[in-house]
Amino acid sequence: MHPVLRPLGALDLDRAAAMHGEAFVPFGERGWTRQEMAELLASPGVAGLLLEIDGVDVGMAICRVVADESELITIAVRPAHRRRGAARRLLAAVLDQVRAAGARSLFLEVATDNPAALRLYELSGFCVVGNRPAYFRRGDGPAADAYVMRLDLG
């Protein structure tokens, strides 16, 4: 197994949008479009990472740093590659990136009904600091609540 982490660039946007859709559409959420990703990545302080293993796109992450705070905007792993450490590898790379940019904390929002993601974040040291009712829209179904989580990078 040969994992490669690299910056998410303009030439990767179609692949990244496909991965995002594969990761979140099964939860009833809408995947982001190529255009939405392009606009997000063009924003100040925003950066993306792409994870490939043996030449196959496995996952991606997008984060933002503003002053000494950072946000994990999304982390997406293709369903066929879950439970193999890809999300953990992406999160570790995000932590390295935001620390290098001077961030002292990392925030994220995670659906309260996503036990795998909650476990990853809790094991990584994140703590729940807030709640956002009906935050994640789920197609025709009820929206899911989100926890706001924070990790001190100091």
How is this structure best described in words?
The chain is α+β, with helices and mostly antiparallel strands and 154 residues long. It has a single domain, classed as Aminopeptidase, CATH 3.40.630.30. A 7-stranded mixed beta sheet has the order 1-2-3-4-5-7-6. α1 crosses α2. The longest helix is centred in the middle third of the chain and has 15 residues. The N and C termini lie far apart (33 Å). The model has no long low-confidence stretch (mean pLDDT 91).
Q: Give a short account of the largest sheet.
A: 7 strands, mixed
CATH first level: which class? Alpha Beta
Report strand %: 35-45%
Give the overall pLDDT as a whole number: 91
Overall, the morphology is globular
What is the gyration radius calculated from CA atoms? 15 Å
**Count of strand segments:** 7
What is the succession of H and E elements?
EHHEEEHEHEE
> At CATH's second level, what is the architecture?
3-Layer(aba) Sandwich
Number of domains: 1
Strand order of the largest sheet: 1-2-3-4-5-7-6
Structural class estimated from helices and strands = alpha+beta
> Which fold name is given in CATH as the topology?
Aminopeptidase
Unreliable stretches covering 5 or more consecutive residues: none
Count helical runs: 4
Distance between the termini: 33 Å
Q: Could you state the CATH homologous superfamily? A: Gcn5-related N-acetyltransferase (GNAT)
- Determine the fraction of residues in helical runs and give it as a percent range: 25-40%
